[in-house]
Specification:
The complex is a heterodimer of chains A (177) and B (192). By secondary structure, chain A is mainly α. Chain A folds into two domains: 80 residues, RNA polymerase sigma factor, region 2, helix turn helix motif (Rna Polymerase Sigma Factor, Chain: A); 79 residues, Arc Repressor Mutant, subunit A. Helices cover 69% and strands 0% of the residues of chain A. In chain A, helix 1 crosses helix 3. Chain A is globular. Chain B has one domain. Chain B is elongated and about 85 Å long. Classes of the chains: A mainly alpha (177), B mainly alpha (192). Chains A and B meet through helix 1, helix 2, helix 3, helix 5 and helix 6 of A and helix 1, helix 2, helix 4 and helix 7 of B.
């Protein structure tokens, strides 16, 4: 029991030190309210610590961490949906947004980041998960493993994300994954 | 594997300032234990409330002098036991298996929401209807025992209040069902 607890603690501490910043960014993408976001982040950390009790190494630690964190955050979004009414949309619907007039280079970085966050926070949980994984720099195969989507589906979504980001932030990149 | 940061938006995202929130293992253990205690106490409270109601109705049943009163309290008691059993069977939320992928978790949440919608949509049959026989027998018994217009008027008022409460509970649950339907539709698109 003590050995299990020690492994659980070690795994958690390693995850927190390696992915702490990514988890904070993830919480920011799932919750706009700073006060509630702090609670969500704590919930993610607690969820992660508890999850390592049953971690058997069937997938990589990184995959496990992202899965657990996103599941806690998605559950939070669904619970919040009962009190907030803004509709969540899919990537396809966001493609119809009008193009932005200025990009991150031209505009203030924090404004661009706010805009990016607002865009992400409008997405449905699964699309939000894909776009966040892409923004964290994960490749299509890793995203497919974490989300459970097929590689082809992930590639399509990443293509859409790239086009969307290019149009919204005026970079002009339209390359396929 | 990580991609090269090919996209300036990826850079913008990853270079955003973070607070560097850290939680010690001690704090995490305490919070986790507190959460488990909260769940335990919630369950204990529900069972204690049901037990108190059952004891009260049981004592009324035993102390009742006439057959109609006994039948009334017996029906109320049976209805309440039925509701508690249904609440326990239908109401308790299943736990999402740990570490599953997002698609699986979305399907799980959709199934859970569909189950909850079914529970609130059918509130009439498992929550309200079991109390109706008790109220009917009570109404008939009271009307027989006190055959006066004034007593009947009071009884009618009481029945109207109970019917109004039933209607309100039903309406609120139908609204909850519509809200759940909306959430399920959103998840249907998300979990394709």
């Amino acid at each position: 029991m003590a050995a299990v607890e020690s492994t659980q603690d070690e795994l958690y501490q390693r995850a927190a030190s390696t992915y702490g910043a990514a988890l904070e960014r993830l919480a920011r993408a799932y919750e706009a309210d700073a006060e509630i976001r702090r609670d969500l982040l704590q919930e993610i950390h607690i969820g992660l610590w508890r999850s390592f009790e049953s971690f058997e190494g069937r997938c990589s630690e990184r995959t496990w961490i992202y899965r657990v964190a996103h599941n806690v955050a998605a559950s939070h979004v669904l619970n919040q949906r009962r009190v907030r009414s803004q509709a969540l949309v899919g990537l396809e619907e966001l493609e119809n947004l009008p193009d932005a007039s200025s990009g991150p280079q031209a505009a203030d970085r924090s404004q661009a980041l706010d805009r990016l966050l607002r865009l992400i926070q409008r997405l449905k949980p699964l699309d939000r998960h894909v776009i966040l994984s892409y923004l964290e720099g994960l490749d299509a195969a890793s995203i497919a493993e974490i989300t459970g989507l097929s590689a082809g589906n992930v590639a399509t979504k990443i293509h859409r994300i790239k086009n969307l980001l290019a149009r919204q932030f005026q970079q002009g990149g339209h390359d396929d994954e | 594997m990580m991609n090269e940061l090919e996209n300036p938006v990826q850079k913008l995202w990853q270079c955003q300032p973070v607070e560097g929130t850290k939680m010690s293992l001690d704090v995490i253990r305490k919070r986790a234990a507190k959460f488990e205690r909260r769940i335990l106490w919630r369950n204990v409270r529900e069972y204690v409330a049901s037990l108190i109601a059952a004891v009260l109705l049981g004592s009324f049943l035993i102390r009742a002098h006439d057959l109609l009163s006994r039948i009334t309290f017996g029906l109320f008691l049976a209805g309440m036991v039925w509701i508690v059993v249904q609440l326990h069977r239908k109401g308790s939320m299943k736990k999402l298996p740990v570490g599953v992928d997002t698609l699986t978790s979305m399907r799980f949440y959709r199934a859970e929401l569909e189950r909850q919608r079914e529970v609130v949509s059918s509130v009439w049959s498992w929550y309200l209807a079991p109390l109706v026989p008790g109220f009917l027998v009570y109404t008939v018994g009271y009307a027989i025992r006190f055959p006066r217009p004034a007593a009947w008027a009071g009884l009618l008022l009481l029945d109207a209040i109970v019917a109004g409460m039933f209607y309100l509970i039903w309406k609120l649950n139908m609204r909850a069902a519509r809200c759940l339907k909306h959430m399920i539709d959103e998840l249907n698109g998300a979990a394709q």
